[in-house]
């Protein structure tokens, strides 16, 4: 993991905890999102209050569509965050925000990772 990825992951870890992360896959936006942006991901509509990284954590990566997941908005210059529980991943429609893999829990099979 690159240094910035490590610090993002440590913040995700502080919110979700090690136990949940064992069986989760975590993705992060390729770029930061500007303050004031509204983002629609599946069933989640989020307002970005500061320049931030967007994190998608698939909490049940072996399940089909419509399962427990969470979005996090992580403030770039600070430690604030917004958490939004959801049921749908951000990968449903083309043209959405690009994400990259940040973390795959040790209990998650390789086939469950979305190819982005």
List keywords for this structure.
globular, two-stranded antiparallel sheet
Short description:
The chain is an alpha+beta fold and 116 residues long. Helix content is 16%, strand content 34%. A hairpin with a 2-residue loop joins strand 2 (38-41) and strand 3 (44-47).
Characterization of this structure:
- This protein is of the alpha+beta class.
- Helix content is 16%, strand content 34%.
- The chain contains 2 helices and 7 strands; from the N terminus they run H-H-E-E-E-E-E-E-E.
- The chain has helices at 3-16, 18-21, and strands at residues 25-29, 38-41, 44-47, 52-58, 69-75, 81-86, 99-104.
- The strands form 2 sheets. Strands 6-5-4-1-7 form a 5-stranded antiparallel sheet, with helices on one face.
- The longest helix is centred in the first third of the chain and has 14 residues, at 3-16.
- It is globular, with a radius of gyration of 13 Å.
- The two termini are 18 Å apart.
| Rg, Å, rounded | 13 Å
Q: How would you classify the helix and strand content by structural class?
A: alpha+beta
How far apart are the first and last residues' alpha carbons, in Å? Answer: 18 Å
Low confidence ranges? none
What string gives the helices and strands in order?
HHEEEEEEE
* Chain-averaged pLDDT: 89
